[in-house]
Amino acid sequence: MKRSRPRQRQRPEERYDVDGSIIKSKVPYKKLDNPEMKATALKEAQDYIKTAKPAPSESQQSSEQLPWSDTADDIFFSKEKRGLATFFLRRGSPRYDEFKGFYRKYSGLRQWKIRSENETMSATSTGHALKDESETIRNAVILFHDYYRKQQAAQKAKIEKDRGSLPITKYEKAIVHTLRKHRVLLIAGDTGCGKSTQVPQMLLKAGFDHIACTQPRRIACSSLAKRVSYETMNEYGSEIAYQVRFEGTSTAKTRALFLTEVR
What we know:
Layout: E1 14-16, E2 22-24, H1 35-50, H2 70-77, H3 94-107, H4 115-118, H5 123-164, H6 172-181, H7 195-206, E3 211-214, H8 218-231, E4 240-244, E5 247-248, E6 256-259
Parallel strand pairs: 3-6, 4-6
Antiparallel strand pairs: 1-2, 4-5
Organism: Umbelopsis ramanniana AG
Keywords: ATP-binding, Helicase, Hydrolase, Nucleotide-binding
GO molecular function: helicase activity; hydrolase activity; RNA binding
């Protein structure tokens, strides 16, 4: 099975400055992963939050309103405008919604003004306000990325520990090896041994396609699809789906499908 190579992270040809202006990059493409720069940026963000001033409580802010301006939203989170943070936070994604809650708590540790007040300010003052707001968002993104990475690492460690305790785990190599040589394989095990959740993951990891896992009830299909997506840290995205009568999440990219009836 041919797999596409992971896209390398490179320096963009142009990017937004914190005040909204476009900067043309004259530096040749190169990888951006730099542990020293990451450590420096994280320390700067932590120092920034320590020196910040108090602000209105979260209850004073509208839950329907963006915690930042529309301009800042375009600069950082718009895919169409190649926002600065779209590699990690893209407008409309679940992670983006989670970050909004994180930012509301973070912004409570510094002084800020609501968007309606900014609209009445002069053009010069608004530019300074946008620059200050952009600096706040930048530091919040750095801290959220570090928090999210640590959270994912802890979650992965727990999943691996739970997976290792399931009886079927030790038979992974035997299952994959047998299926590569034979079309039929019968697996018998007690309830809860990991047949429905672990075998599809084993096959996905081994590169198998067109995996169907039939279930007697509708609710079991959706629940198992969500569980397998969770245990794989959503690594496969839409490649894991479910399909019941009149409802489903399968796409052309689906590789593992939980369904109630064979179509």
